[in-house]
């Protein structure tokens, strides 16, 4: 076994042991992280970060406040206790606190979390995935370091934390889709906060789920949304309704004008034909022949005038429709 592998195994063992004794801090990326037991340290105390083959100083306590080194000045305020005002992903690691004659190791885990927003009384699902290994591992959901729900991955036994049994369960997808999501039947206002999904073995945390953290946010219910409203019409539907309205109005106007003209046209044609047809004897017939043979121009009948008027009306009507259609 190489020296690097030995260092890694020793670090892993220390990490597991530290988390078992409560010196483990986990936060969501971007949140602040307060290091425990740093507020009571005397002058001369130091906080360092342990890395392979070296230890790097992070901050030192002078005159009752922690003063960070140059690499951390933008994220650490000079105060009685040491804390990152905002965490970055690379802050994950093992820190050594030398406080007088005491030494404490603190493991900081910075997790990439997701958000879920819900209103009071609504159901909610907090996502977490982890494959079954059919061993003694236990998947655990926690909030404020208190157990919410625990699943034995080998036996399938489920345990609930105080006050959560009747309101939540695990996803029905289960081992088939390695879905270990936490499902709320109804969310209460006190349920908002940060939830962490982790895997433990022999009482020690071994790994984080994916994602390892979910922030449940609270949204106020809009009273106007209690009664469903029909969705607003789209722009295309409104345009289509406007076109149909214009066509309908234009059709009604044209009908009211053209219908009387058709009636007058029929009446004039019938009247003209009655006057032109021969009644009796050959005298009337000879007069008609004489008129047809004459070179004098004939006066236009009323039907011709009406035809011209009808054609003109149709032209203006079609122009009106074409102009008003979108």
UniProtKB/TrEMBL annotation:
Q: Name one Pfam family in it.
A: V-set
Q: Where is this region: Disordered?
A: 215-237
Where's the Ig-like domain? 106-199
User: Any signal peptide, and if so, which residues?
Assistant: 1-24
Transcription as a keyword of this entry, yes or no, is no
Tree of life domain: Eukaryota
Q: Which UniProt keywords apply?
A: Membrane, Signal, Transmembrane, Transmembrane helix
Keyword Methyltransferase annotated: no
From the record, give the transmembrane residue ranges: 246-269
Which protein, by its recorded name, is this?
Uncharacterized protein LOC115005890
Q: Which organism is it from?
A: Cottoperca gobio
